């Protein structure tokens, strides 16, 4: 009982100091205020909980398209019939379509100029491109005719990359309108002109590889939150698109192989009998089967058929359609079962001989791994197909994406190329979920597409390989960006076209923020439930940022407005410093707790080594998997035989574990009972962005203890706070944020160590005085230490 009183007496002394220090005064800003009117007002379409409202609506557009690929002229000719459904409560006088290929034109592009300066040197071609007025380079969409269902001409206006169709009579709520557009365009060499779609020529064999993306006039989104999303396409901000059903026919050279969005409906007409038999075999195989073999692809490269074939595809409830076509393609596939919805998916890859050594080993397995992992964290993958096409770039569309990953000419490759290829495949396949299904407005908010996808990409890379060299997601990887001067930064909540450092802002910072939420602020259980709830609520719908912010709070019970305000709406960095450590030491004998030893079967390294917290915790999950007595771990969740050594579960490893990895409430309120030493740690918020305070104490006997102080400690004073601890053994050092979880930009002020000159002023006389006050029952009017029992440190 006496020791308990002494612990409380320590508390009364230091709590008094803290109350003075935490006086808000002018130090209280708005970091913990609610977002309030920053977010749009909830309504019947979008609720305050973040869920779609009971009157939520969205438009629909169905497409029937015929395309003719002229390989000699490198021209694509198309005819499409669009049926547009007005599910809104509004009457529409006109419709807007996107003409993305106009961005490739020298005269039809969006005309978003950038600042320019005189070059130090320029060749003739460079000077020609500067001629005024600009000469038409022949690229962009050529509209042949636009008619209604009765073949009557429709008036239309083209404004750069947007096309407005003026309706003869308004389209009322609940009505549909069918019209037809005939068009063509010259296919650009995307290796020279850039962009996402086009052709790549291979001089060694004289063949082309076509990526047909953004290739047809596409409906813009008309929504409750934006009206028509008809912002010009500049090549950066991507797309806002409408869900619908597609029927697409593609007439191509007879020896071309096509991979496209959806399911091919006539493989029996376009494949040889041997290829069709292999496809049927792949549909039931757990390992990739070559449907078109390397030998067949090499033979087709040489023969170059002049015959033609038509491939027919159908896709339901998708927002876009893309395809790849080439006689160079090797094609492999395997089945993937998504357990959450029992969906049998064909995972497939298409690639030339230049990528064979990498893609044949890894691509389809990475596709399978990706859709299974994303299904766990978001929604079950709903489509029948998932494809990766090697095309020396990276871009995504429903059920198909284009990635890079070629070997050297002798078939060898580096680890960097392999991991880069795996990362881009996971990223682009992952885009099936964000934004192809959870269909955010990419033109306005790139981060809702790229940032959310990059976050789940990181989780997926981790489950592919615990040592995968992820470059985006771990908190410490964003530090160099966060420490840049403020005039080089924008908030995440910035329109796509206005971001100076697009990669860190749209990809890395939002992904890192979500990882910090998951690992450090909310915890995995709360975060995963809330994030999955967001995905389920907004699958096949059009979410906005407020819908994500509100859902994450609604499903978790956590007030996160301070985090959205700091991480998404400001450019403040994290820089929390240990400013001062004060010590009080009474004279008692020490009886420290002994550390315990715990034996696990694991191949994990020592947990005290610095690594990203996600990697460490994933290995902890792996340890638990063994301890629970389950069978051999199969690569965390799913293992495909990738040639790596399997885990040897027969070995036992001994890890040194501390007596406790977190301070108990008893330790916090009373102190460990013998040889109590009190430590008051003063912290400064130098960066401006508040975060939880994470501490690792190392004691003189070599043991360690961890504690995490909730971010709410900053709510009364956002500039400085103090925290007091009581231990039964001497602290040798204190490390702030030992696992680099918070993206702290300056770790030089995160460490304190006791030295021979460290002062430890005795508070013994203070305690004697307090005891005398206790004996008199607090007659002096001072605080009775027993009355302080309910006070928290």
TrEMBL record:
<dbReference type="Pfam" id="PF01433">
    <property type="entry name" value="Peptidase_M1"/>
</dbReference>
<dbReference type="InterPro" id="IPR014782">
    <property type="entry name" value="Peptidase_M1_dom"/>
</dbReference>
<keyword id="KW-0031">Aminopeptidase</keyword>
<dbReference type="GO" id="GO:0005737">
    <property type="term" value="C:cytoplasm"/>
</dbReference>
<feature type="signal peptide">
    <location>
        <begin position="1"/>
        <end position="17"/>
    </location>
</feature>
<dbReference type="GO" id="GO:0016020">
    <property type="term" value="C:membrane"/>
</dbReference>
<dbReference type="InterPro" id="IPR050344">
    <property type="entry name" value="Peptidase_M1_aminopeptidases"/>
</dbReference>
<feature type="domain" description="Peptidase M1 membrane alanine aminopeptidase">
    <location>
        <begin position="368"/>
        <end position="567"/>
    </location>
</feature>
<protein>
    <submittedName>
        <fullName>Aminopeptidase</fullName>
    </submittedName>
</protein>
<keyword id="KW-0732">Signal</keyword>
<dbReference type="GO" id="GO:0008270">
    <property type="term" value="F:zinc ion binding"/>
</dbReference>
<dbReference type="GO" id="GO:0043171">
    <property type="term" value="P:peptide catabolic process"/>
</dbReference>
<dbReference type="GO" id="GO:0042277">
    <property type="term" value="F:peptide binding"/>
</dbReference>
<keyword id="KW-0378">Hydrolase</keyword>
<dbReference type="GO" id="GO:0005615">
    <property type="term" value="C:extracellular space"/>
</dbReference>
<dbReference type="GO" id="GO:0070006">
    <property type="term" value="F:metalloaminopeptidase activity"/>
</dbReference>
<dbReference type="InterPro" id="IPR027268">
    <property type="entry name" value="Peptidase_M4/M1_CTD_sf"/>
</dbReference>
<keyword id="KW-0645">Protease</keyword>
<feature type="region of interest" description="Disordered">
    <location>
        <begin position="771"/>
        <end position="793"/>
    </location>
</feature>
